[in-house]
Amino acid sequence: MSEQVVPDDGVMDFTPKREIPRFRIGADVFTGVVEIPAELSLDFSQKAVLMGQEGQTTAEKLAVIRDLISIVLVPESAAIFIARLSDPANPIGISSFREVLPWLLQKYMGTPTTPDSDSSSGSGNQESGKNSTASTSGEE
Predict the structure, then answer these.
(1) How far is CA 30 from the centre of its chain?
(2) Domain-by-domain residue ranges, the chain?
């Protein structure tokens, strides 16, 4: 995520070197924050988990959505995004939201939000690789 650089002054630099997330829905281009502050990042993670839980009221779900967007987008973009969530003339629908949220999670958290199809079989492949190596070693 961030590259550690020791410039000429000998001071270790931990400044994030990530690209600022930007995305378009319709005519609007939305801009993410450079970095989510650590406390808000934990809040963001918890709110993302809440999005998938059963039993929340519509009002609770809407509050979580607004909070998530306010955490990851700059204020101007967040205001437009949130307004469009309920704008019948220029809406952001649930399908767009479902595409944007995992993408933003990946951008800020640095990990995919769903397991890669190869990752679940990775340990099995690794194990079979060990077995073939072991049998090859035994034959020599």
Answers:
(1) 15
(2) 26-110
